[in-house]
């Protein structure tokens, strides 16, 4: 069979719409996962054993259940008890909760890496624990956690392809439609492979540049 990518030209607009929806879902899910990750990371460093235990249960639970099972629970399971959520919102919620477990590891590592002198200086200055965590600890932890959080984002974009199973026409969902309409699945999925590979490579490069920019002072000190 001869590959003919020209058959996809009339459908590039549809694929672009899918890519845009993938970007929107990923951006919203990134915000949600960082918020969830920050809350869980703080809980995992809490002085309360009950809070720490609850946070560990959350992380273990969502890291050890396949994402598609979590997604089906939210989309197909919740309506049984009267909770109806549209596909895109379900995808954002599921991705945020699932990725939040991984983001919490990255943020927690950033918190534990902070010099104890920072905490001591904040304690001497009389700042409340809430102010110390929101104004000092979390900004530093997020800055040092850019690379692992970037990996969470890349994985989130790849995982978002599963949303096509709940009728969300993101990039993979639109590709399936184009493949069925054109009867040219080979060309469609070749383009899909290239798009995902290029997108994730560019994101990884951007995260690396951002990490260097935000941590330039630390790199200079080490040098």
UniProtKB/TrEMBL annotation:
SUPFAM superfamilies cross-referenced by the UniProt entry: MetI-like
Molecular function GO labels: transmembrane transporter activity
Membrane topology type: Multi-pass membrane protein
Keywords: Amino-acid transport, Cell membrane, Membrane, Transmembrane, Transmembrane helix, Transport
Listed transmembrane segments: 20-43, 55-75, 81-103, 149-168, 188-210
Any one of the GO BP annotations: amino acid transport
ABC transmembrane type-1 domain sequence ranges: 19-204
A Pfam family hit: BPD_transp_1
Function according to Swiss-Prot or TrEMBL: Part of the binding-protein-dependent transport system for glutamine; probably responsible for the translocation of the substrate across the membrane.
Protein name as annotated: Polar amino acid transport system permease protein/putative glutamine transport system permease protein
Organism: Rhizobium metallidurans
């Amino acid at each position: 069979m001869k590959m003919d990518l020209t058959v996809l030209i009339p459908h590039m607009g549809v694929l672009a719409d899918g890519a845009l929806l993938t970007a929107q879902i990923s951006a919203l899910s990134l915000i949600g996962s960082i918020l969830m990750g920050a809350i869980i990371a703080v809980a995992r460093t809490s002085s309360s054993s009950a809070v720490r235990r609850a946070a560990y249960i959350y992380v273990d639970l969502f890291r050890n259940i396949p994402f598609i099972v979590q997604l089906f629970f939210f989309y197909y399971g919740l309506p049984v008890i009267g909770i109806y959520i549209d596909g895109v919102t379900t995808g954002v919620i599921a991705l945020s909760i699932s990725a939040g477990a991984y983001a919490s590891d990255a943020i927690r590592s950033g918190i534990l890496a902070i010099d104890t002198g920072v905490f001591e200086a904040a304690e001497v200055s009389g700042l409340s624990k809430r102010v110390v965590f929101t104004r000092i600890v979390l900004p530093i932890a997020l800055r040092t956690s850019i690379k692992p959080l970037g990996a969470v984002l890349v994985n989130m974009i790849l995982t978002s392809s599963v949303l096509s199973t709940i009728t969300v026409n993101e990039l993979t969902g639109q590709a399936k439609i184009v493949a069925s309409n054109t009867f040219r699945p080979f060309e469609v999925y070749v383009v899909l492979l290239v798009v995902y590979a290029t997108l994730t490579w560019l994101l990884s490069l951007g995260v690396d540049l951002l990490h260097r920019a935000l941590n330039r002072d630390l790199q200079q000190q080490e040098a």
